[in-house]
Amino acid sequence: MSAMREGQVRCIDPHGWHFMRYTDWGDANNKRVLLCVHGLTRNARDFDYIAERLSDVYRVICPDVAGRGRSDWLRDPGDYTYSLYGTDMATLIASLHAETVDWLGTSMGGIIGMFLAATPGSPVRKLVLNDVGCVIPRAAIERIGQYVGKEPQFESLDALEAAMRSASPFGELTAEQWRHLSLHVARHDDDGRWRFRYDPGIGKVFHAAPPAEVNLRPFWREVHGPVLVIRGENSDLLLPETLDEMCTRPHTERFVVARTGHAPMLMDDAQVGVVRRFLLR
User: Residue 229: inside a domain, yes or no?
Assistant: First the structure.
């Protein structure tokens, strides 16, 4: 297993330039590249566990999407769009000089991957969608809307972690894993308070329209190559009927993580093993 490195790439947006930062695991000369892209308010460090365990066979790149983690916040919150995220990822892939990449995306990161994998000439070879599918139910959109764009403050890291645990059905994690996820999603500001490490401005685009079901079937139908769809058994974002529908597509496999909601964190060896076997087969 390799040590983690850090990198950055400068990307353009409608109002200037911004740095997108990423973690980098494995042999830097390995042409087999896996991109791991996080959910709406998460960050690259969610993937430390699986990235380290796949770094013997992949160069694993885990970006902080703009406005999250260590990446720059955008000057205009209205620029937080999937179009910009896709352009940023294309810039990142070009900077890696990789002819093809495999993609593991959780929630928002899966949607970005689906969009890129659906485009003609896409470099995405294999796609792993972690708890996201071709239909996003309205109820899940409403739930997410209750917190995205807000900026809660906490007196301690313990209090931030307790809030995250109460709202995030990530599955059966150890105390050490919960602390890892909390530490890297948090920032300790000059006023002594703890806040989540993302730009609350990402809520501007999210709340621009009333909550409604999101239909991604036109993109899903155009996805090239094999796909593994992972679902948390209790997920409200990827429903069982959506997973069944998706698995009628050729070269689509499924894996359901028991006693987990949205979204599985892929932080145990059984889950990593399923992903590894799919990617390397």
Answer: yes
Which two structure tokens, joined as six digits, stand for 31?
């042409």
User: Is 143 a domain residue?
Assistant: no
Determine the Cα–Cα distance for residues 94 and 195; give it in Å rounded to an integer: 33
What percent of the chain clears pLDDT 70, i.e. is strictly above it? 100
Tell me the per-residue pLDDT of 209-253, one tens digit each, with 9 for 90 and over.
999 999 999 999 999 999 999 999 999 999 999 999 999 999 999
Q: Residue 141 CB: number of other CB atoms within 10 A?
A: 19
Q: Could you give the CA distance from residue 32 to residue 271 in angstroms, rounded to a whole number?
A: 21
Name the residue among 49, 1, 2, 45 with its Cα closest to residue 268. Answer: 49
Query: Does residue 83 lie within any of the structural domains?
Result: yes
- Percent of the chain's residues with pLDDT above 90: 98
At 194, phi and psi to the nearest 5? -105, 135
Whole-model pTM over 0.70: yes
Rounded distance, CA 125 to CA 32, Å?
A: 11
Task: Tell me, yes or no, whether 144 lies in a domain.
Answer: no
Domain limits for position 126: 5-137+215-280
Distance CA 48, CA 64 (A): 13
Structural domain count, the chain: 1
User: For position 114, which CATH number holds?
Assistant: 3.40.50.1820
- Reply yes or no on whether the pLDDT at 47 is more than 90: yes
Pairing of strands 59-63, 33-37: parallel
